[in-house]
Amino acid sequence: MKGCARASLLGLASGLLVTLVPLSGAHADDPVVRLGVRDHRFEPSELEVPAGVKFKLIVHNYDPSPEEFESVELRREKVVPGNDEVVVYIGPLKAGTYPFFGDFHQDTAQGRMTAKEPGAVPAVSK
């Protein structure tokens, strides 16, 4: 590769790094909501979340087998490995109810998330 092309490539790469670094902390202040999977069931099966606010959903799978957090209404689908956790960013949501399910155990892994206006939802952690 010629010197000019190499310098151009390095400049592009460093520009991308500068662009991506600020994005990595973009979710630092989002409220956190926790959801567990145990015995192929969600715990709790009913979540209350604030409407109009973006939040970080942490799904922890206590089972040794994987499960998938899925919701057509939320347009989210993420596999949660066994004995591990994943983060799913959601929102801001309009007030309403959003069902979710575990795609690998649809008969037992069912739940719903209810987004309520501010003041109608218990505080979530930051």
Describe the protein's architecture and organization:
The chain is α+β, with helices and mostly antiparallel strands and 126 residues long. The protein folds into 2 domains: 28 residues; 85 residues, Cupredoxins -  blue copper proteins (Immunoglobulin-like), CATH 2.60.40. The protein has 1 helix and 9 strands; from the N terminus they run H-E-E-E-E-E-E-E-E-E. It starts with a helix and ends in a 10-residue tail after the last strand.
Strand content: 35-45%
Order of strands in the sheet with the most strands?
A: 3-9-8-5-6
Name the CATH homologous superfamily of the largest domain. Cupredoxins -  blue copper proteins
Overall mean pLDDT score?
83
Distance separating the two termini: 48 Å
**What is the β-strand count?**
9
Structural class: alpha+beta
Q: Give a short account of the largest sheet.
A: 5 strands, mixed
Shape: globular
Tell me the count of domains: 2
What is the helical fraction, as a range of percent?
10-25%
The parts where pLDDT drops under 50 for at least 5 residues are 6-10, 12-26
The appropriate CATH architecture of the largest domain is Sandwich
Number of helices: 1
The name CATH uses for the topology of the largest domain is Immunoglobulin-like
User: What is the rounded Rg?
Assistant: 19 Å
CATH top level label of the largest domain? Mainly Beta
Helix/strand order: HEEEEEEEEE
| Oligomeric state of the chains in view | single chain
